């Protein structure tokens, strides 16, 4: 728990720092891009400087994409946690997921109708799924299968994992599995660190899984990962399952939710 707190504090500080940097940086990028665009528009079609200016615009575009990712990571999002049926959340963004993995990767979705309801912010939940899908795509450059599964599970005893222990309880479980390159133990140990990436410059920010980690924390869930080089990677997220009946709206805000004993 102390390690988790330290991680959360580290993320908070890094998030604020990165956010203000990204914001200022973006202003400069807009000046560079805007001026390059304006000059380019005035140049005759055969001007020798067109290619160089085109490169400037393209580089500024990529850099802007990067700052947008950093801003998304650090933004003080207004969270609207609400009851979400886990098995309804996945198909709701199926098209986005398909776009994230691209045509090379087969997307297999298996939904359990009884996976149950969880308390989460819908936008954060989509972000979590998309971050995992993008990583899976990157891990399968020659194609493969991304499986997203929902189910319900009751753990009667704490289950230890690489990154902590899942305490006993009833959970709505989300499994995200790829048939990609997998990870070494050394990589696995560091994947949730903000800015840790093994991807080439310009491709990875190292913020994807740190964000996923933060989202799972905020929904009171637990995140486990298993991976072997050459054999793919499986992320399992345990969300505390809500009681079957939605709480009446008159419930005092912030009242603790009890997991259903069914
Ligand atoms: P980024 O994707 O920008 O590198 P992440 O925090 O999302 O940042 O991931 C950190 C690192 O974890 C990646 O660079 C990669 O080495 C590893 N990783 C994450 N997901 C997977 C996966 N599905 N398969 C293999 N390696 C992965």
What layout of secondary structure does this protein have?
Blueprint: H1 2-42, H2 50-74, E1 81-85, H3 86-92, H4 94-101, E2 105-110, E3 117-121, H5 122-139, E4 144-155, E5 159-161, E6 164-166, E7 169-178, H6 185-188, H7 208-218, E8 222-228, E9 232-240
Adenosine-5'-diphosphate (ADP) binds at residues 135-136, 139, 178, 180-183, 187, 191, 196-199, 204-210, 233.
Domain Histidine kinase: 20-243
Protein name: histidine kinase
Describe this entry's structure for a reader:
It contains 7 helices and 9 strands; from the N terminus they run H-H-E-H-H-E-E-H-E-E-E-E-H-H-E-E. With 262 residues, the protein is α+β, with helices and mostly antiparallel strands. Strands 2-4-7-9-8 form a 5-stranded mixed beta sheet, covered by helices on one side. Helix 4 (94-101) packs parallel to helix 5 (122-139) and helix 5 (122-139) packs antiparallel against helix 7. The longest helix is centred in the first third of the chain and has 41 residues, at 2-42. The protein is elongated. The two termini are 28 Å apart. Bound molecules: adenosine-5'-diphosphate (ADP). Adenosine-5'-diphosphate binds at residues 135-136, 139, 178, 180-183, 187, 191, 196-199, 204-210, 233.
